[in-house]
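Our preliminary data section would be incomplete without showing what the modeling component actually yields. Below, a chain of 202 amino acids is followed by its predicted structure, encoded as tokens that our downstream tools consume directly.
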Amino acid sequence: MRARYLLAAVFVIGLAASPVRAEEKAKPADAAAEQEMMKKMQEASTPGEAHKRLESLVGNWSHTVRWSMKADEKPTESKGTNTNTMILGGRFLKQETQGEAMGQPFEGLGISGYDNVRKEYTSVWIDSMGTGMMTATGQFDAAQNAINEKGDFSCPLTGNTHMTFRSVWKIVDPNHYTYEMYSAGPDGKEFRNMDIAYERVQ
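Predicted structure:
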């Protein structure tokens, strides 16, 4: 009888000890998996070549903007200034704009970046001509040396809640870049409704 109790005790102790041993064996594997996860996270969070394209736009700029509501309409022209800076450790480009629009003082703020996870450029724009946010995503075209984006915004002039557009940011040279915006006119056909020419202020 005593031998039977002794065997039972050894069996119970063995069961109690086995999870501990399994846990101890799993620790190195868990640590390695955690390190690999942290490595991937760091890589995805670190600015790279795509962010350097945005960094090339850092500085003070003067600009001339032309825009129109219809393809056959004479564009309205105005001028302004831009201050572009990289923020959050070189992850995003912040654009601060001062100028004039429709005879009124104009202020605008843009944030652009490159999402390493989604593998695409992203942009958000807000200004003093509306209460909505213009959002867009896109890719870099090496042949054009340009970022092509598509997005939408709410238009206070037409009342359209989701007006779609596409845009082209083209880096001409270290001291010049352009921005073109295309959207559908009243006839549904796409036309260039805005273009902005930027020149670096020395």
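The longest helix spans residues 2-45. The two ends are 98 Å apart (CA to CA). Preliminary results of this kind motivate Aim 1 of the renewal.
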